[in-house]
Design goal:
The protein has 229 residues and is α+β, with helices and mostly antiparallel strands. The protein has 9 helices and 4 strands, in the order βαααββαβααααα.
């Protein structure tokens, strides 16, 4: 029998909760470099590609060979900014969560196959290992209501609390972006934040802190998706 949520029915212009973890629950982000590399892949894939600026680097006689090589690599790299909007994310030592909206029915599959293959190649090369890094194919859950969408962002952003990490200062999620503590150009938070007050008891921060402070993550997970870290 296929694993839960491994059989996916993709619908265009729809939201999905995407997640996966390391094979045998192994660590997939062992240090800050691993987190940074995965985040850089998200940035490269999801920020619109400025082709004219990259072409200028290639044609500029003052560009170094390294600058030209980087520009050429970015020009050749896949880009999914027209297919995928990333609403929220959180990376934990042995798993990750992405909440995305796709514009075409095959957008997520193209994006995730590229992302996980590229990261697996990086990780295996760095750690001198071979074989699968992730526990099978990624899992995907169709978001069927606005309530589920809102609570999914809360569940994703609360994941560090399950490991005892402070939410506001956790560097590997989009929560700081939602709070305005940092700016992540490839995270699309406006739809969610528009449903909350800018500050006070009806703010997004109050909503997430309520989930964390009152141990409501399990209830939220039932509305979102049950995954054990």
């Amino acid at each position: 029998m296929p694993a839960k949520n491994s059989v996916k029915q993709f619908v265009e212009n729809s939201y999905y909760h995407i997640y996966n973890r390391g094979v045998e629950k192994r660590t997939i982000f062992s240090d800050e470099k691993d987190y940074a590399v995965f985040m850089s892949y998200l940035k490269n894939y999801l920020l619109p590609k400025d082709k004219s600026a990259l072409q200028q680097v290639l044609s500029n006689q003052n560009s170094t060979s390294h600058q030209k090589a980087e520009a050429l690599k970015l020009l050749r790299m896949n880009n999914f900014s027209d297919l995928i909007d990333l609403i929220a994310h959180c990376l934990m030592p042995n798993h990750f969560h992405l909440l995305v909206k796709q514009s075409l029915a095959n957008g997520i599959d193209l994006f995730m196959n590229s992302l996980t293959t590229r990261y697996s190649m990086y990780f295996n090369k760095r750690n001198k290992r071979v074989g699968h890094l992730f526990q099978g194919t990624y899992k995907a859950v169709l978001v069927e209501s606005e309530e589920q969408l809102i609570h999914l962002t809360g569940y994703i952003h609360c994941n560090p609390a399950l490991k005892g990490d402070p939410l506001r200062s956790y560097k590997y999620s989009s929560y700081g972006h939602y709070l305005g503590l940092n700016k992540i150009g490839w995270v699309k938070s406006s739809k969610i934040l528009a449903l909350f007050a800018p500050s006070g008891p009806n703010s997004y921060e109050a909503f997430v802190e309520y989930i964390s402070d009152y141990d409501s993550v399990e209830r939220i997970a039932q509305l979102a998706i049950d995954i054990e870290g």
